[in-house]
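From the pipeline queue, job 12 of 40. The input is one protein chain; the requested action is below.

Action: predict structure.
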Amino acid sequence: MSKEKKRDPIKVMLRWTVILAVVAVAALLLGNAITSYRAGVLKARQDEAEKINAKRDEEYAVALAEFEAASQSGANLAWPAQKTEGWDVVDLTNYPLENVYTVTVNRSDIMNGGMLLVNQWHSRPDDFNESELVSIMSYVGSRNLLYGLPGSSTQLMPVAINALNECIADANAIGLTNYTILEGYRSMDEQQQLFDKQMESLSSRYSGDALIERTKRYVNYPGTSEYQTGLSFRMRIYKKGDSQVNDQAFSTSEQGKWLAENSWRYGIVFRFPLTDYPLPYTADKSYKTGISTQMNLYRYVGKGNAAVMHTLDLCLEEYVEYLQEHPHIAVFEDGTLKYEIYRQYVGDADSIELQLTGKTAGYDSSLDNMGGVITVFSYY
């Protein structure tokens, strides 16, 4: 029987050392090859990206030079094409104002221009000035065709009364009369009284924060009511001694339907649209306004703003958001420029440098209560 040959442990160790060294060298070489390959691919991609970026930089430099040359020469830059029929809104976000100059104004000068957004999420500014409010019964601006209910002392901002006077005059001309403002401006005290009264009526069923939140479903918390802008008003038809007229629902009356269809032409919009209210084709906006109660509440915003809201089917909340995303737009009617609208961010500054275009002298500016100023330039 033969004896098994005993292995030399030193030789075995040396053999494995050599094998491991070879494997390590191979792995190192393979790793270096992979790293080199990856570096080559990465460099190729970087080179390609640099070429693309360089090309874009060249194109931008050319476009910028053309723009600056056109601006210095006073030439009008070509805006995107617009529709030749009907109303159209063209986005000019990438087109700056032309022939720009600035005018310095105070916040108070443009507080009540029409675009102040007040709702349950955006309370009325603390520096809101009530001094411009006037009684609709004694207003002597334009021909006054508006009336409050007997004994009322309804107040509104003059811009709202002037717009509504123009609107009602055209309604009267086609035989639609007896328009009456049921309610207008509410002071902070009046809104507080309404809120407290509603809260008292619910106090037997709710308490604490639950009572306040429940009350806010029916009456806006003081400072967050649309009525506190002086730009909104609730309408009805009223004729002294005629119960048949007075009992008719405004929204279904000929006066109500005409106002709902045409008020935007005068700078007035229906404030809280609901499904099929005030018109059969009205889209629900309660998810944006926070108001789901039917009420004949109208709001002055100005003709240019109202034209955009009507054309794009936007409520006031949606419109302000739209201008935040598209701060420069143009509004056309049958291919003719009617308005240019520009929103600039100003924060809560007291002194504001308004940016204006020298292309037209007519403009109206208003704070939007979202940190911006909305300026409408008129071209008619």
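Job complete. DSSP finds nine helices and 13 strands in the chain.
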